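Batch 3, record 17
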Amino acid sequence: MASSTIQEPFDLIRLSLSERVFVKLRGDRELTGILHAYDGHMNLIMSDVEETIMLVDVVDGAPPGQPATVNVAKRKMPMLFVRGDGVILVSPPSRT
Amino acid sequence: MSFFGCQTIIWRTSGRGSETGGAHENEDVAVYTWGEESYDGLGDALLEGGDDLNDETFGGGGSVGKDFDFAGQTNLLEPEIAQGKASALEGARPQSVVEQHPRVQHSLESIWNDKSPFSVLPRENGAASRREPPMSQFSPFPESPVLHQPNASQGGPRTLQEIEVEMRAAAQRQQNALRLQQEEDQLLQEQAYQRRLAFQQEREREQNRLQMMQLREHSQHQRTPPPRMLPVSQSPRFVDQRQMMLLQQQEEHQHQLRLQQEHLQEQLRMEELERQLRAQQISQLNQGPTHFSHRRQPSGPTIAELQALQQQQHLRQRSQSPAYRDFNVAPQNSAQLQQRLLAELAQVEYMRDFQGATQAEQEALRAEAMRKIVEAERMEDKRRRKAAKIAHMSRYNDLMTQSDKDFITRIQVSQLVTPDPYADDFYAQVYGAILRSRMGLQTQDERVIKFGTGGGVGLGPNAMQRMEQQVERIVSNARRREEEKGLHSLHSLQGALGKTSGRSYKAAPRQLLQVDDPSTNEGAAKEAAKLSHETLGFAQTSNVVRKDPLTRREVLTILEGLYDVVLKVEQLRRDQPNSEDDEATREWQTEFDDMVEQLWDGLRVLVPLETSNPHPFVSLMAPSKGKKLLPRLTRHIGSSRMLTLITLLVACFTQLDVVRQAPVLDGPDDTAEYAEVDRQTQAFLGSVLQSILPVVAGLELHVVTALFGLLIDRSPDVADVARTRPGLALLTLFLSRVEVVKQAWASGAEAAPTAEAALEQWQAVFNHFFLLLTPHLLSLFPSSRINGASLAIDMLDQPVWQFLAALALQAVPEQHQVLVTSLREKVLENVLSANKGWVADEEERRTKLANVDLFLHALGLDSSLITV
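Prediction for the assembled complex:
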């Protein structure tokens, strides 16, 4: 029964409904939060969201080998609508 | 200086020549003697002037048009000149020979250089026709358009503007000629009138030719459809259109052919007529002015026919797209209009000259003409603007074929179609029901808002009705299709994205590695063993095959499946048929029971306890949606099954995630782990306990005792359970149920035949529990376990005080002593901080006192009795 109900990719996302998920977005952003709803465009509604934004600062005129500094900004939102065109990845959070 | 070289000859031959000079009497041509001794100097005496317009008046030096019937003209003069001396027959003949001479010699070059006003006119019935031998026109291939197209014989293409300019010039010249002719005598005017008549005839023909040309252009234009339409669409409407167009084109083509043939016949007839006319002219010398009416007669009907045909064509054109029509007809119309206006003007002028109208009348006529012109121009302008507007609006007409439109309609309709409209907008319906009940309306029958009740804007009831019917039909069709598709839903998507070539998708990929998977065999064996055990019944639980606990993904998959079933069951409940219909009720009941059975199996409650740790059911309760599923199940599966479920839950209580993870809640509250456990705990308290509460509230004492005992037995350390909020809540639930039963018995509300035995049993279990718990009483309080003081700590302590109160109610007096001794510190601490004002606010103080009082009241005490 376990595998017979999985017919399309969205069935896998359905499994994560009302679970905490990790979402990777375009623009170096990541979200973790509880997934409440999704649709065919991968629009998501999430609650209790923590957003992580990677800010990569490339120093002007720096030699190519020099690594850019990466700043991480975080913010929390109680409820969030995520537009589907920015979604790259939806996965259950890694469990330790 | 003579205008007509021929005339000198005529005059000479008619006898005058003998007087001009004897020396050159025998010469064929005029002999001039400038510079010779015998030159009489008459050339100098000639008045050289007023010759400027000679060309326009009499035609250029090159070829003359075809319609100068000088025979008639000169013959009219002849009686005066020759006084019947010379025979008219003799006079006419050489003239006609000379006149025809340049025509016969027509070359392409000379046509091009032809300056005469009539050179712009078609030669179909004139010189041109004479150029071609008649035989070629009756070739065995009369349909060949190349042979018969007047355009091709015109010696190069000409634009409308050129033609127009030439026409204008011709008209101008015509006017000039008319003006010059004013000075001529009556006879000459008559002659001019005849010429005009001929000219008008010619012009009519010219117009016909122009229209035909435009028609041809038009049909060519139609023949190249817009690129979008090139692929022939399957839409019936479109095919019709195209067929219409083709038919029209064919018709037009046939028309052209017929017209050409008629032209040829006409030409022949005209030639014949001309010959006859000449003969007539010869015989009826003095009736010159009127003989042109004969000429019109034979050609009249043909022209009328032509015009009628063209009008038909016009009408047919008009029945087509307005954009096409107006765009293409406009220049034609304007050209026609100008021609008409010019003709009118000329006619007016001519009439004026002819009738010798007064100056005032002339003015009036001119004003009238001007007014007409202006009005016509305005109308034309208006019409053109309108046409342009329509063309602009219909720019994108027919961009979409009918099948495109059908396709889009199908998409839209498919969004409307649903097997169950009520379920589809379930939330809207529920919200509507709530709203209605809030407003006090109890209209259950208006559950679904009917289509069209709102009324369309500007649509009559008829149109509305028709639209409704149409939509209904479309929807039912789409629904039927949907159902058909549903029968083989898997196949419906087969090949939707195109077919994969080859057989690779049918055949399994070639196996490259041959590795035996021992686990699958083992798993299968286990499965078989388990199945056999299950069929043998639960008696052999000792032989239960242990399995790995469900993986998280399995749990989630099962839960989603269960939710599906729950939704179906709920829908089924809404669709419950009337009790009168036995057949339907039975069917419905069967289906419903089947669904409930699925639910029950899905919960895995009956799976033996030892199968795995955690038990599958406990695993299912781990995600928050698993916990939330339970309240939705309880009303379907019945209370006896719920009791089984509760028993399992109690037996596996320590396996629950909320119990195992509970210590996290004593840690710092700013971690993700804390938040997660807190969320799960809230879900458990709110969902699972709430759903078992009504069941427990109806249990007999001995059942409660059994459950209580089971909980203690199955828990390695009962204090650990009591230290968790779910555990504490469950214990409190059991204790309070016992108290309720006791009170009911005490008041005699319930008969208790086995009361004594049950009470004894209960007390034994309780004493055991109390003994186990006593050493840990203080640690039950979160405030004692959590180091940093939390603001809401009293709220967290509250359930503990409640539990202790319930405990105190069941305790015997000796146990009260133990309780008070153990909790004395905690009680005093709370009362002191409340009384001494060591609290943040009034609310906290009240909470502390209320908490303490909960417990003290159970002992028969009160916080106010405590004085420090």
